[in-house]
């Protein structure tokens, strides 16, 4: 593979599994690897975007940080799909709820990812592209959650380019279209997967509610993320 290592990923051929779990925070990737995986090796430290490969119940799996926002996750997932021959990327992150029936601690699975980004412009499509999850991963995630007794809400999420949005009415506009929650990466992940002919899924733990103001403490987030990570690992 002539394209690897890359300026962003120091892994060599064969060091990354076919399935990669991708939190935004590289330190969370480190925590997942040390907590859930066996026989762990670190394949990337470039820019401190830590990546690890190990085994879970005998199956090879990797976990790597993706950073914040679509430009960052776009780079890492593109390279994983196209240079490292990864087949499945499962984003595991946090989100802010937009709907009254989506509660803090709920796990949201992004069936689709709306976006205010121009990421799709590069494809020169003659219309508006709708980024969606891979059905097989989505179906399996729901089945695993049901077996675990974990509540999941499936639907549309928003991948926003702006964390601090100057348009104070933006959330209201997405809320009226029944978008469940807002995050910052899923749309780019889904588009990269579609273009590469690979599989992607975004699972999110609701860490705060945009309208009620409720939010989880650091300790509570750790417990809630634990449920989401176990779903992802079982996929």
TrEMBL record:
Binding residues annotated for a purine D-ribonucleoside, in chain numbering: 8, 183-185, 207-208
Positions annotated as active site in the UniProt record: 208 (proton donor)
Enzyme class: transferase
Reactions that this protein is recorded to catalyse: uridine + phosphate = alpha-D-ribose 1-phosphate + uracil; a purine D-ribonucleoside + phosphate = a purine nucleobase + alpha-D-ribose 1-phosphate; a purine 2'-deoxy-D-ribonucleoside + phosphate = a purine nucleobase + 2-deoxy-alpha-D-ribose 1-phosphate
Matching Pfam families: PNP_UDP_1
Keywords linked to the UniProt accession: Glycosyltransferase, Transferase
GO-annotated molecular function: purine-nucleoside phosphorylase activity; uridine phosphorylase activity
Transferase recorded as keyword: yes
Domain Nucleoside phosphorylase as annotated: residue spans: 19-224
Entry's Gene Ontology cellular component terms: cytosol
Residue(s) at site: Important for catalytic activity: 221
Binding site for phosphate: 24, 28, 47, 91-94
Enzyme Commission code(s) on record: 2.4.2.1
GO BP terms: purine nucleoside metabolic process; uridine catabolic process
Subunit structure and binding partners: Homohexamer; trimer of homodimers.
Biological role: Catalyzes the reversible phosphorolytic breakdown of the N-glycosidic bond in the beta-(deoxy)ribonucleoside molecules, with the formation of the corresponding free purine bases and pentose-1-phosphate.
Family, similarity comment: Belongs to the PNP/UDP phosphorylase family.
Name of the protein this chain belongs to: Purine nucleoside phosphorylase DeoD-type
Provenance organism: Velocimicrobium porci
Gene, per the UniProt record: deoD
